[in-house]
Write a structure and sequence with these properties.
With 242 residues, the chain is of the alpha/beta class. It has eight helices and eleven strands. 38% of the residues lie in helices and 23% in strands. Strands 5-4-1-6-10-7-11 form a seven-stranded mixed β-sheet, sandwiched between helices. A two-stranded antiparallel sheet has the order 2-3.
Length: 242
Amino acid sequence: MAAMAEQDLAERLGGRVGAVLVAAGGSRRMGGVDKVFAPVLGQPLVSCSLDVLEACPMVDEIVLVLSTDNLALGRELVKTGGWRKVRQVCQGGERRRDSVQRGLDALVEVKWVVVHDAARPCVTADMLVRGLEAALETGAAIAAVPVADTIKVVGADGVITATPARSELWAAQTPQVFLRELLVRAHQAGDADATDDSVLVERLGSPVRVFEGSVMNVKVTTPSDLLVAEAFLRAQRATGGR
């Protein structure tokens, strides 16, 4: 049944899927440790996302984007790791959007693009499939989770200025899935920086669908996040990676 569902989704997508795995950040809050190659359950953090993208039948090719300092190490890792879908390991840019743009440029003949941050090692194949399903509706979809805490908008003076309705707030994650043509247009539309690619698509006035990510899909930013990610990865693997 799973194979039939995958074949059906592939037919509805109507073209190849490429993935840009972004791993070119500065790791400024990691206490001198480069998180991309920090060990997680005995393997470099970036390997976790590569394993999932490689194993997902929906993904046809991968471009890994690394900082200049990590290019040689990343190319050697891909060479020995056996990820056959990795088309290229390329150098990132000054900003995140520049790194994604270089990854986009390296993809060949794909209709859909999955953009994922290597700093989120707990991505699953199910999440990728949900993202592709959601993107079929609008051409753009992002993983996100409903916000559990009450959020306060606070001014520079430390005084609360607003309390948005929690029911309308979602915390954005990756993977994010786009029609390649739409994402290319969004990147070309202006040079302003953005925290993620969905912001660039939103600026075009194009709708972006949200699909449910996971509270386990944590972003590794500090050394303590590595411990949390390891615990979640153990739990995922104990239940078959779901």
